[in-house]
Specification:
This protein is α/β, with parallel strands linked by helices. It contains three helices and nine strands. The longest helix is centred in the first third of the chain and has 17 residues, at 65-81. The radius of gyration is 26 Å and the shape is elongated. The relative contact order is 0.08.
């Protein structure tokens, strides 16, 4: 490669950029303005990407005739300006999503359910089916082992679960993965919490929760404990960043 190639690279060697059409907020004039600006600063090509990320709906819905017409316009403008035009081929960061992908061929996650029995005796029964999505589940393994201390007792169930605004939060321990408790963001100093009350002191070492809604900013929280419901002490802090994320936090 000659020195001149570095100073003025060809389209094949130039930089590309992701080009977001944010949840339908797009117009012909904006498309042309974006692409002309890219060409003016030396961008050699774009990859059209269509994110939503909780952004309110724009005037052009994905996949409509109007949307497809704008894609054609963008491709023609790229040809006019000498830019390479690419499109993200599927929904999802892995480029593997789409309605043609059936659950049995989609990405999967291991899910579990447990049955506690008191021995020694012969167990004869039907094991519960673990939580599933899209009615798809396949057995992988059945494991039997002696429960470690102090987990020989049943998992304690709160007698009451309450949110900061006084709403019932019992859905967090009903065993149904499709139900959840929605907490409003902590704004202007207003607290945001879920309080669990137990009949007696409990031993615990793990906090597990799954955020069922889409969000794309960093969220911070902390687990606190109290013996009297008045004075609380911090047990551990946690952070999560993406929606639909299961978090497991351990502590002494």
């Amino acid at each position: 490669m000659e020195d001149s190639d570095f100073k003025k690279p060809s389209v094949a060697e130039g930089p590309r950029t992701w080009w977001h059409w944010n949840n339908g907020h797009v117009a012909r004039e904006g498309i042309t303005a974006d692409l002309e600006a890219f060409a003016a600063v030396g961008i050699a090509g774009v990859q059209l990407f269509y994110p939503s990320c909780t952004i309110p709906n724009g005037p052009v819905s994905f996949g409509t005739p109007e949307w497809r017409g704008l894609v054609v316009h963008a491709a023609r403008e790229c040809r006019r300006l000498g830019l390479e035009f690419c499109m993200h081929n599927c929904p999802g960061w892995s480029s593997s999503g789409g309605p043609w992908i059936k659950p049995e061929r989609a990405m999967k996650v291991l899910t579990t359910a447990d049955t506690r029995v008191k021995g020694p005796h012969r167990f004869d029964g039907i094991l519960p089916k673990p939580p599933m999505r899209l009615d798809f589940y396949r057995d992988v393994a059945t494991l039997a082992f002696r429960a470690p201390q102090p987990e020989t007792g049943l998992e304690p169930i709160p007698i009451r679960a309450t949110t900061a605004d006084g709403a019932n939060g019992s859905a967090v321990f009903d065993g149904d993965p499709e139900t959840f408790v929605e907490l409003e963001p902590a704004l202007s100093g207003r607290p945001c919490y879920l309080e669990l009350e137990y009949e007696r002191p409990i031993s615990a070492r793990t906090l597990k929760f799954e955020a069922p809604g889409p969000f794309w900013w960093q969220n911070k929280g902390r687990l606190e404990a109290s013996d009297d419901g008045v004075v609380y002490r911090e047990v551990t802090a946690f952070t999560f960043c993406f929606g639909f994320e299961t978090r497991v936090v351990t502590f002494p």
